[in-house]
């Protein structure tokens, strides 16, 4: 099959199988509120992984796991080579761990979607020049250990395997020991892949925002993963009596924080280019209804698709604190929690997604990802992109996260075609 | 003694005794953070009350308690009459209960200050035409039962005694049964006083704000007690991913609340005339650092010295919600928690405080009280005012609430002189 023949592939994704897989995974770690909680390397995570490993084997894949716990499975190339191939591999995958009380698509769609895509390629009799590797990245969400995207960061060499194995969760469990849930999935292979050994990577994921839905587009071809700056900011005011303290004698920590939060919104709009800024966490002390707020602790989350825009936004947000503090007599402390550089995707992979969408008769849109994904790290060592499908109401990281079944199937269809393009070009 | 002779009184307040009394009470209910927690009718409240009753008896007062648990003690008039007097009485007093982790002056100063004032009158050989009654009002702070100013509201007839006795605390304890801590303080007298039976009332209290301190004034003569409107407001936004949701697709509940809170500040300044507005309690859900706030619950506390100003301020604050909701696509619910009408003090009592201050060689300032006090209810049946002393840094309702010992003594001095003026005029 030539690359240009991708349009002629007879890809038929099994909607029944895809929904059954998502439904099955959606019962593992299901809580009373309808949300799913699967922490990295927990029993729930292991149960989900076992189910997926079984599905992978049924699809004819050779299943391994690596030193940090990424599940890795290969579909043979035309010449029958899998792990011992001399040609570089085409990779796809996502994660199975979740945020606390998250949805059933964030991660799992890109995992079981990849298995269903391979099954569609099998059914269509598609053979490829390069083997295709499916990866279940461990610990993407960062809801157990201190950092997220653990598996992909180890795979790209962004963090050392030894540093991953030494991570400790809030209960004092060391990552190395939490790996015990792996048991019998075969001997561990190295986590790290060398630059040049992966021809391309593509990850299927729900958008988690409302851009595709509101623009009526079927598929997003991700051009960049936005970088991130998070600051913790504490406003120290004066907790006086709300009745007895005239307006001009107040040092109200909440009003200072309110002014700052509204300024972040203004700055993100002014910086433009897809920059966003949010104050998602904010607590008020002492919190009495008749006491002027004496202290506010808040965290801002700033994102932008280029380092320049990210620096501009963060610069404004932090420099605005000085004037607010002066004006209100409020002392302000701030601390950088993290900065993650933006990750540009690669034209080779972006174009493959676009071509696959067109071949499937679907509309597509080049767009940045505001959320961080494993593709960010894989992009450090291989050409990468992502396939986004619409999220209903832009909802994610919550029990109501959902996508129309039709759109789920379309995403898997495009994934199958993209893999075929990349593995044969 | 004639009224004009007040200036010639040889009043010598015992600083040692006053500070010892405050220190002694300050150990009852003292917590690890240095704050005092004495809920109405608790064991701590009873212990404080017993101490005060003993001090009252030592000062020559006849001590009773009434049906709702106000401790009431009388100093005989010149003719020896106490409870069975035909002339109307001059009252003073405050409360012993506290907010959670409050200070040692809010309430106790007006209680032991009254005892020390009586002792100063005794030492100076001052006799009066009218008996003087000291009252310890029960449950002023509202930190146990659903309402505050319980004792004074029952005394004025603002609430019926039967309704007070039927109050229930969060643990299900009925007020009537909580009264068991009273035990042997003598037979209960009626709580309610008839209009005309009280010549005047004056309450000594810390200012709890920064007006006296910042203006360098010794004594505040309270002209009115500001009214209060409290609303609970809920902002319903959309809890989406902070990275994946562009600014123009957001419905951020916190930004709506921030805009509202800053608008309250602006409105209070514009309304002027001593109006103040505060958002002291505000919670953000879900509260994840990378999730756009989907819900904010907040309470606003609005105060003004006249009904007109209070209505103007509350009107603005509530009407502003509509525009904010429209602008941000945020649904907003609001509920009135309470409205307390402003309580004008009486010229008879205000002027007596001013004259007493002048007689003691102290500066005084006519000022409103932003905080609510028992004097608000007593004013419904008798001419009333309050004596304020400066609060260091305007601090109150917290462990760091404090007043210079010199200022405490001055307040008691002015109280003694005010009582002498009112009881002899």
Brief characterization of the structure:
The structure is a homodimer of 425-residue chains. Chain A is built from 12 helices and 14 strands.
Any overview of this molecule?
The structure is a homodimer of 425-residue chains. The first copy, chain A, has 425 residues and is an alpha/beta fold. Helix content of chain A is 33%, strand content 22%. In chain A, strands 1, 2, 3, 4, 5, 6, 7, 12, 13 and 14 form a ten-stranded mixed β-sheet that branches. The first copy, chain A, has a four-stranded antiparallel β-sheet with strand order 9-10-8-11, with helices on one face. In chain A, helix 3 links the parallel strand 3 and strand 4 (132-137). In chain A, helix 3 crosses helix 12 (405-424). The longest helix of chain A is centred in the C-terminal third of the chain and has 22 residues, at 307-328. The termini of chain A are close together. The model of chain A is unreliable at 1-7 (pLDDT under 50). At the A-B interface, helix 8, strand 9 and strand 10 of A face helix 8, strand 9 and strand 10 of B.
Key phrases:
homodimer, alpha/beta, four-stranded antiparallel sheet, 425 residues, ten-stranded mixed sheet, 12 helices
């Amino acid at each position: 099959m030539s690359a240009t023949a991708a349009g002629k592939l007879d890809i038929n994704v099994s909607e029944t199988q895809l929904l059954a897989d998502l439904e099955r995974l959606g019962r593992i770690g299901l809580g009373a509120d309808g949300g799913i909680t699967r922490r990295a390397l927990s029993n729930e995570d292991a149960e989900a992984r076992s189910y997926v490993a079984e599905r992978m084997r049924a699809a004819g894949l050779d299943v391994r796991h690596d030193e940090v716990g990424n599940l890795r499975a290969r579909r043979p190339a035309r010449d029958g080579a899998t792990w011992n191939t001399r040609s570089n591999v085409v990779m796809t995958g996502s994660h199975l761990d979740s945020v606390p009380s998250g949805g059933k698509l964030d991660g799992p769609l890109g995992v079981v979607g990849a298995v269903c895509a391979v099954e569609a390629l099998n059914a269509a009799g598609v053979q490829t020049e390069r083997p295709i590797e499916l990866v279940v990245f461990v610990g993407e969400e960062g809801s157990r250990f201190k950092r997220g995207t653990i598996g992909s960061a180890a795979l790209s060499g962004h963090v050392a395997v030894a540093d991953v194995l030494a991570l400790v969760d809030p209960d004092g469990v060391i990552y190395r020991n939490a790996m015990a849930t792996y048991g019998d999935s075969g001997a561990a292979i190295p986590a790290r892949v060398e630059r040049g050994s992966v021809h391309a990577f593509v990850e299927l994921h729900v958008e988690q925002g409302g851009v595709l839905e509101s623009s009526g587009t079927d598929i997003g071809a991700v051009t960049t993963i936005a970088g991130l700056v998070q600051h913790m900011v504490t406003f120290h005011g004066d907790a006086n009596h709300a009745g007895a303290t005239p307006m001009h004698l107040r040092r109200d920590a909440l009003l200072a924080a309110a002014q700052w939060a509204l300024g972040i919104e203004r700055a993100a709009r002014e910086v433009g280019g897809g920059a966003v800024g949010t104050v998602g966490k904010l607590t008020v002390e002492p919190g009495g209804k008749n006491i002027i707020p004496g202290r506010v602790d808040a965290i801002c989350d700033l994102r932008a698709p280029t380092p320049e825009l990210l620096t501009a936004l963060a610069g404004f947000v932090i420099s605005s604190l000085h004037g607010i503090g002066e004006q209100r007599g409020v002392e302000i402390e701030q601390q950088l929690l993290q900065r993650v550089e933006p990750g540009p995707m690669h034209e080779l992979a972006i174009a493959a997604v676009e071509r696959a969408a067109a071949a499937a008769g679907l509309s597509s849109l080049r767009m940045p990802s505001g959320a961080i994904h494993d593709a960010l790290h894989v992009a450090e060592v291989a050409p990468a992109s992502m396939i986004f499908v619409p999220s209903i109401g832009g909802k994610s990281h919550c029990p109501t996260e959902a996508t129309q079944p039709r759109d789920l199937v379309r995403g898997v269809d495009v994934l199958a075609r993209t893999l075929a393009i990349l593995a044969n070009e």
